[in-house]
Amino acid sequence: MKKIVFTLCAAAMVLAACAPKEAEPGMYKLTNENGMEVTITNFGGRVTSILVPDKEGVLRDVVLGFDTPQEYYPENNQTDFGASIGRYANRINQGRITIDGKEYQLPQNNFGHCLHGGPTGWQYQLYKVVEADTHHIKLLMESPDGDNNFPGNVKAYVTYTLTPDNALDIKYSATTDAPTVINMTNHSYFNLSGDPANHPVTEDILYINASNFTPVDDTFMTTGEIAPVEGTPFDFREPKLIGQDIDADDQQIRNGNGYDHNWCLDTAGDDTVVACELYCPESGIDLKVYTDEPGIQIYTGNFLDGTVTGKGGVVYNQRHAICLESQHYPDSPNKADWPSVVLRPGETYHSHCVFAFSVK
Fold this sequence. Notes:
- It contains 1 helix and 29 strands.
- With 360 residues, it is mainly β.
- The radius of gyration is 19 Å and the shape is globular.
């Protein structure tokens, strides 16, 4: 297959030490001594490119996105490419939560549910840059009480660090002045071939360290069940081609239009144990994900339909990218038996995810 390496337009790049004007987004480049490069925009706290050396030493851009921050504006492209999602990643049933007996009605922006914090979630807001150098950037979101109807004034930080061993380390933290819910994640769309025009992720190999997953109904809402993966298309405990069972005659596959589900990790919150691993035989690039979260949402780009044109004029088609979203389970505010997502005054929310790249 043809090798394509995307680079950001030099005119769009700014020095990492120079903060953008308050109302304008900027682009910040992280580098390491291996030649790896990661570019971040503070609009939505988004990863806009990750340049990783392949098995031949050629740099490939392994995430989908756009060339300029302005293209991420919702009036231009309504996507979550590379975003730091908040306040609540994934779905909340009918957009309703109850905290200490008080009910809050959130926006219903996806099949009647609240998805990724609502239509103006943090992925469509401007983070403040509080620290930045060639190896890391720390972003701040100051979310007021009532932001998309969520309670509490929240201060949330996202810190991206590019390590010497080719890992993108992401740390989240948040505090609040009133009880609220928090569930943050990164929504990068990966294509480890660096050639999303021609290479579907169904040709790549996936491992997920999970014995159970959370089934969904036909509105993509979790049913409340935690089901075993054994004997289903959702069993990735042994690495297998993503495309092997993605079109299986299975109700959950039909409900998700492919894979768009949360896996319940067997890692017990240990972020030194591999949560999942993605390998592209064509490029030789391998991606291991580590997290202290209890779950990970795997989404195989089922709704990419060729209507979005990204970097380098490439059209993004169905199943030509995969998202690996560390998280608490979807709709946890309404599932009392699942790990809690409630954050209270005096507490600090923490979440950690590492995308570790190598070659095979």
